[in-house]
């Protein structure tokens, strides 16, 4: 019964995240982090950072990948059963994409009619900077924990998510190889994995 309750809680949490996120997977990360780390305490800050890193490297949208990994970690962590972890992955993933599926079905026939309207353009004009803010928030949340005492925020660095100099060196090398060297991203990921194994 407790397992079923947890599954329903995961489903509802990711359904709400999917329903109220605009701007794709990166904009979704701050909401996922707030729900699974801060609100429910299902996983730790460092585990969430690892999930984000793996989600970026694996094929598919980062938001869906994150939901899949979180669902697995939560259910496997509670039950110790791999098949329950897989079930948690499926529930979290389906719950996350269901709102988008429903919304697209509802608006697809009206999109061409309103695409050129001033109302549509105005709405998109307001949403674009909001999406940028959500993506920036996702990056900040990974390294800064914010707690509120009344109306005063208290900021604390999440030490386990702040990398050492070797990680920053790998980041700089990957950035340079991608931006100026035009190196294939797959090769950069593989090189990063090899360097990580050698250095750590």
Describe this structure in words.
There is one protein chain. With 200 residues, this protein is mostly helical. The chain folds into two domains: 157 residues, no CATH class; 35 residues, no CATH class. The protein contains eight helices and two strands, in the order H-H-H-H-H-H-E-E-H-H. A two-stranded antiparallel ribbon has the order 1-2. A hairpin with a 2-residue loop joins strand 1 and strand 2. Helix 3 crosses helix 4 and helix 7 packs antiparallel against helix 8. It is globular, with a radius of gyration of 19 Å. The termini are far apart. The relative contact order is 0.11.
Briefly say what this structure is.
This protein is mostly helical and 200 residues long.
List the SSEs and their pairings.
Layout: H1 2-20, H2 25-39, H3 45-57, H4 62-79, H5 82-114, H6 118-143, E1 144-149, E2 152-157, H7 165-179, H8 185-199
Antiparallel strand pairs: 1-2
